[in-house]
Amino acid sequence: MKKTLLAVILAVACVACLAACGGSEPAPAPAPETQSQAPVVASVPVMTHEEYVAAPLDSQVCVETYIQAKQGWWENQATIYTQAEDGAYFLYNMPCTEEDYNNVLTVGTKIKVTGFKSEWSGEVEIIDATYEVIEGETYIANPIDVTDLLGTDELIAHQNEFVSFKGLKVAASKDANGNDAAYLYNWDGSGSKGDDLYFNVEDAKGNVYQFTVESYLCGADTEVYQAVEALQIGQTVDLEGFLYWYEGVNPHITNVVVK
Amino acid sequence: MKKFKKSVLLVLSVLMVLGLFTGCHGAKKSASFIVPEEFDTSKHYDITFWAKNDTNKFQTDIYQKAIDDFEALYPNITVNMRLYTDYAKIYNDVITNIATETTPNVCITYPDHIATYKTGENVVVPLDQLFADEKYGLGGSELKFDGPSLEEVVPEFLEECKLGDSYYALPYMRSTEACYINKDMVEALGYKVPDVLTWDYIWEVSEAATKKDANGNYAINGQKVLIPFIYKSTDNMMISMLKQLDAGYSDEQGNIYIFNDDTKSILNTIAEHTASGAFSTFKISGYPANFLNAGQCIFAIDSTAGATWMGSDAPNSDISPDKFIRFDTEVRTIPQFDTENQKMISQGPSLCVFNKEDPQEVVASWLFAQYMLTNDVQIAYSETEGYIPVTTKAQNAPEYVQYLADCGKDTSTHYEVKIKAAKLLIDHTSDTFVTPVFNGSTSLRDAAGQMIENVTKSVRRKEKVDDKYINKMYDDVTSLYRLDQLNASGGSSKADLGPLPGTSIALLVILGVVWLMILAYLIYGQAKKKVNK
Questions:
Q1: Is ipTM > 0.85 here?
Q2: Disulfide-capable partner of B465 in A17, B48, B271, B339 (CB 3.0 to 4.6 Å)?
C-alpha cells in the first residue's frame, strides 16, 4: 500500500514537472484567429452570374459555384478559383479551417457562397465570405478559348474563368541585368526559384501581354512551373489558366504546351 | 528476485524524477553567448542570412555583392542568402525554426519580431558586448573592413533596437512614410500645397475633389474613378494619428490603451470621409501609386521606401504606360495635428544575430551583420529606394552627399521623388518615433490597422458606424487579436516577475515531500534489514 502510494505521488510529481517545463520555447504572442472577420450576413437570394455582375461593388452577394482550383490557405483563410456554368468567381481570403480546405473544399465541389462583392486593382472578387457545401453535384469547367478576345473590351466578361490561349509566341522579358529572358522570377527578375514566374507572350496582332505562374497556385514542383522555366523566346505555345486581373489582364497560367 | 525488481523499480523511479529535473529547463536552450578572445580564422563557417527585398532587382544585387565582398575579406566564412519579399514570412519561418534549432545566423527583422524571438532563452544574441568589443566590435581594431563606430550609428535608429536593457539588433535601413501629392490637381481645386500638411487640410481638399460633373465623372480628372486620399498602411495611420494626439496606444509592459475616445474620434472622422468617397485604403482599393499615377488619387501616403513607384516618371510601375498622366509630384511629411511638433513613424529593416553552440560561428555572423553597415552597402542599398543610411558615416560621405545634391538629374538613380523622400527623413529624423516593443506588439499593430479597415469597409457597405458599432468592434478586435491575453506574455523579459505563484509553491512543496518520503523509505528499509539480521 505504501509503495503504491509512493508510486502515485511520484507519478503526480512527474506530471507536474512535465507541465511546468513548457516555458523554454519561445512563446509567440497569440496569433489572430483570422485576419479579417466574416461579418454576420443577412439572407440573400442566390444570384445568377448576370445578377452578380450587375450588383454594385461592396454589396452583399450570394452565388452557387464549383471549386476549380485552390491558391492557398493561410491563417484560417482560403483563396479559391471557382466557376459555375454561367460564369466565374474568385473567392479571396474566405475564412475556412485547414481541414475543410484540404478535405472538403476539393476541386469540383459545389458551394453556396455569401459575401461581399469587391474590386482590388481591377480584380472583382468575393471577400468576407461564408460557404456552405452542397452535396451531390460536381462540375469542372472546360477551358474556353479567348485568344481572339485578347486586347478587346469583351475579354473582361470572362474574368476569373478557366480559359485557353492558342498559338501565342513567347516574347522577350528583360532580366535583372537588362538581358532578354524568356521568363522572370518576380515581375522584375528580382526573385529566385519558387517565386512567381512572369513571362511575355505575343498574339497574332503583335500585342504583348504579361502572363503569370502564381507560385501559390502552381509551385516550383509543378509541371507548368517547370515548363515555363524551360521556355525559349520565339517558341509558340498553347496555354490554359484562370483569367485573373491586376491592373489589366494577368492570367494565372496552369498549363503550357510548346507547339 | 522480487525484492530486487522492486529496488530496481524504485531506483529507476528516482532516476526518472532526477532526469526530469535536469531536463526541465535546458531542453533546447543554447548557452548564453560569450565573446571569444580571438576569431578563429583557421576554421570554416557556413552562415545563413535571411534577407528581405522590396521585389527590387537592385536590392537583390546589392545583397549579393555585399556577400561576395565580405567573403573575399573573410575567406573562411561562406554566407548563404535566402531571399524573402515579406517580413511576416521571415517572422513565421524564424518562429518555426527556433523550435528545431535551425534559425538562420543573421536575419532581417523588426524589433517587434525580436521581442517574440527572444522569449526563447538565448535565442537572439544581445549585442552589447559585441558592440563594445575592442577587436571585433563596432569600429574594432581587428576588423578587415572600415565599419562605423558606435557613435556613428544614428542614435535614434540604434535606440529602436534596444529591448529592455540590451541591444538585440543593428539598424540596417530606415524609412518613414511620406505623402505623395498630385500638385496640379490640388492647385486646380484652388488650394496650395503647404510646407506641412494638416489632417484638416487633407480632408478638406479631398472632399473638394469628390464633386462630379453631369455625366457622373469626377470634375477634377474627368474619369469615373477617383479616390482623393489613399493610405497604404492603416496600421501606421492609426498609430501615427494617436501619437500626434499624444493619445493612448500601449506601453512597454504590454498594457493596451488603444481602445479610447481619441481612437473613436479618429474612426468617426475616417467613416465620414469614406462615406463621401474621399478616402480609401490599400487593402480595400489597391496600391496608392497606381491610382496616383493614373490621375485617380491626389494624396497617396506610402513608405519613402516606395518612392520609386510614385509620380509621372516613376521608374517602377504596375500600370501600363498609356494609363499614366503627367503631373508635378510634391513630397511632404504625413499630415499632422500639430505643425510645430511633427511626428512620423520610423520603420525599416534591422539585423539580428542568432545564438549558436559555437561562439566562433556567432562572431562570424556578427562580422557579417556589421559589414552590412559599411558605407559601400549602406549607400548602395539606400539609393535603391527612398531609404536612408543608418550611419552618419555613410550619410556624411561625399559620395552620398553628392547623390542627394544630384536630385532630379535623371529618372533612375537620381529620380527626384525618391531623393526628396529620402531627404524628408534625413531632415526629420528627430521627429520619428516607434511604438513600444513587447511580445504581442505585432498583434496590437495589426489590430490598429484592422479597425480602420473595418470602419472603411462597413461604411462602403452602407452599414451604420456609430458608438455602438465602434464599441462592439473594440470587443471583436480584442478577441480576434487576443489582446486580452497579451499582458501575461507581453512585456520585457527583464521585468520583475513578482512573487512565485501559488501553484509553483505547491509544486515545490510536493517535490520536497516526495524526496523526504523516498529518503524515509530508504532509511526504513535499511533499518528493517538490520532488525531482520
A1: no
A2: B271
